[in-house]
Amino acid sequence: MFRNLSKSIWLLLFSVGICCVIYPVVLWLIGQIFFPFQANGSILRGPGGVPVGSRLIGQPFTKDEYFQPRPSAASFDASASASSTLAASNYALRDRVGRTLGPIVRYRSGPNAGQLVAPDIECWFQKDVFHGKPHIVAQWADLHNSLAQAWIKADPAQAAYVEDWAKMHPDLVARFIKDNPGTPQPKAVDLAVVFFENFSQKYSGKFPSFVMRTGLKGGTEKMIEPVNTGTDIQSVFFDMWREEHPSVDLQDVPGDLVTTSGSGLDPHITLQNAEYQLDRIASKWAATMKRDPAAVRKEIEQILQKNASAPWFGLAGEKIVNVLEVNLDLRKRYGTPS
Fold it and tell me: I need a labelling partner for 63 at 20 to 30 A (CA). Which of 10, 104, 124, 322 fits?
């Protein structure tokens, strides 16, 4: 019996040694010797050799000088990789796509062919009339309660702004509690519709948005103020503007510019998507460096072509570019944007 037990123990130790020590060590050595870049996370480095991200995981870029990735349902959180799972009939999907299109889409035909629709969205919004009724912001909140609540949840400063408003409007809060006895102590998100209705009455043709102002100590501070221009107007109200202008002929945009990937972490965009963003990026760098936009555009096109490749050595799919890689090339060539 003891002999059988000892054999079993030795067999167990032998198996553990192979599976848990020798095998992992061999794989680690092969990875470090033959594939060190991939084995260590495909980390890309910026100026000074500082790690700036992985070639395999997308990350957000918001400055106009850089190419921007696909939208991410996971907010580019590698620990929360996921798709949006929103159906085509879900208004949240329509809203997200509309917010992307508003600041970038252009007219395809007509007297304004090639021009951005964004300025016209702002002019339409400032008239503060939707389907013949006043107060666009109030109608937006009434029609899409979840979007109004999402605005408050999006930033602690926005929630605080509504909480301060509630303290200054106890009568409206009391009326809300009377109409909603199941919510005796409403939070900022509960008051979303009431807040936007009141805001729309007080500030016709305006929307609460972040602006930069000079603070008391001389530095710049980010604060919320009523505005009637800017990307918030262009993005949030693009869908309502489009609803009132169904016959306007707009340019098509690349699909991956407005849709998320299955993982929410796709580090690549199509070359078509990158070229669609090219005018914005080239004009911004040209203004920063005081150079000819056409010459800067040509240089950036060369960067794109250098980085573009199709899967399986060009045998399958269309050409794609890695967003982080091309943005690093832009930084190497032009420096850090101001």
Answer: 124
Same domain, 333 and 293: yes
Total domain count for the chain?
2
Q: Are residues 338 and 314 in the same domain?
A: yes
Q: What is the DSSP code string of 187-222? A: -TGGGHHHHHHHHHHHSTT-EEEEEEEE-TTSSEEE
- Asked whether residue 265 falls in the same domain as residue 296, the answer is yes
Amino acid found at 109:
S
Residue 226's closest CA among 154, 165, 149?
165
Residue type, 16: V
Q: What is the pLDDT along the chain (338 residues), one digit of tens a residue?
A: 677 788 888 888 889 889 988 999 989 889 888 888 888 888 989 888 889 989 999 999 988 899 999 999 888 988 888 888 888 888 888 999 999 999 999 999 989 999 999 999 999 999 999 999 999 999 999 999 999 999 999 999 999 999 999 999 999 999 999 999 999 999 999 999 999 999 999 999 999 999 987 766 667 788 999 999 999 999 999 999 999 999 999 999 999 999 999 898 999 999 999 999 999 999 999 999 999 999 999 999 999 999 999 988 777 788 999 999 999 999 999 998 87
Within-domain flag for 330: yes
The model carries a pTM of: 0.82
Same domain, 271 and 337: yes
Tokens of 141: 């909140």
Pair 300, 330 in one domain: yes
**Look-up: residue for tokens 């850089």?**
66
Structural domain boundaries, residue 13: 2-40
Instruction: Tell me whether residue 171 is in a domain.
Output: no
